[in-house]
Fold:
Amino acid sequence: MSSVTMSEIPLEPAGVPRGRAMVERAEWAARAFARYDIESVRRIAKAAAEAGAAHAKRFGDDAVAETGFGVAEHKYLKNISCSTGIWEMYKGHDYVSPRVLEQQKIVEIPRPAGVVLALTPSTNPVATAYFKVLSALLTRNSIIVSPHPYAKKVSAEAVRVMSEAAVAAGAPDGCIQVVEEPSIPLITALMTDDRVAVVVATGGTAMVRAAYRSGNPALGVGPGNVPVLVDASADVTMAARRIVASKSFDNSILCTNESVLIVEDAVADKLVQALRREGAYIASAEEAESIRAVIFDGENFRTSWVGRDATAIAKAAGIRVPAATKILIAPIDLVVPEEMLAHEKLCPVLGMVRVPTAGRGIDAARAVLRITGAGHSAAIHSQDARTIMDFSAAVRVLRVSVNVGNSLGGAGIETNLAPTMTIGTGFFGRSSLGENLEPKHLVNITRIAYNADAAVTMPSFAGIDPWSAPTGPVPVYPLPSNAHESGVAPVERRDQADDGELREEIRRLVIEELRQIIKG
Structure:
């Protein structure tokens, strides 16, 4: 028998044992949590939401300090909306108790997914983490949050606050975890672990694609590039107010922000005047060229300008603007791929094109979405139902906001869409999710289906509930003494070649994004 030396045994990359240990703990918590009744679930979710809200202001400040993106006051508002706001929205929803459909002779039993892996972005780090944690708690799932490396500190602290409150309210230990030091091997280990039920990915398109390729079910999003049409019937004053407020909200860091303003000639001059009154600076053709050169490198948006103030962008472009300027509007002649100002811009710069008719405006909106943003969002300011219907049927998106700023309209905060930090783009945008992500997407339903023959009766299921409130204190997860060194419960791995390919892709994506952010 040949002997094998220690040097010949392939070593797993650092981080893999830690990833396996996190999933093992999450799976243990998910099994316990799946037995909880509705009252216990509501008590836990409420406690976590209130804890998040109590720290919303501090985390808004910390997010801006750590990333350099956005406006702290606006992040505070998003943090509130995604903590107690989400709780108030869904506290009456029941993703736990069986539902009896007498007429159909069907009984529906909600079943949690299990272990949820949540990838969160640097642009909305705390709000997205809050939203995904609460969505998991409301549906009795355990969750591991993997933050963007550029926002890891504030993200980890935000998740810890919710975790401590949830456990204190009775949640199983390990129900909420966070990756404090993201690394390529650790993220890969988490994404490819067979015990992860679903990866919920919010971030860049390539990272979402990597989630889809992980071998686990994934709910991902696509990029935005929102066209907004103002037609001749619009209330121009209100349209200008809403567009400026939306485009300047958190310095345009939400993917639902307006990207290209399309205005009908009949009201264009009046709209421009109204936009100026609201704090917009209308650039000349020469100034638009300078803005283009600053925020684009010729082919791509410079991520160093993500969430930066309009005045800072203007200064870099050599343009003198009033100190109170909220957004920069850069006129363009044509909506074509070669025009970089017709591409997505996560900063308070808005392209603007004039069109002779609403019909031509609809054509321009379609052209914007052919560049990027298919499936995401569009907006229109109009009083004409025919135009609104034609616009909505023509653009390849799955949500159209009417007479409201799209940053918060498309996200469901200023409309009655489901409030979310994760925008599904459906088949148009090559996404598995076509709606705003909400808790229901983390639940499957077991259906007890009786014979449809009227002669076959179904007994009463009233009052029968398979779940129960936990009795006594929730046990602490039993960590082995050597857990920090070796991890726990090794799991059978997927093909090593496939894992290596995915790891290399994730490495490339993270390094490239960080390089753009740091160097701009």
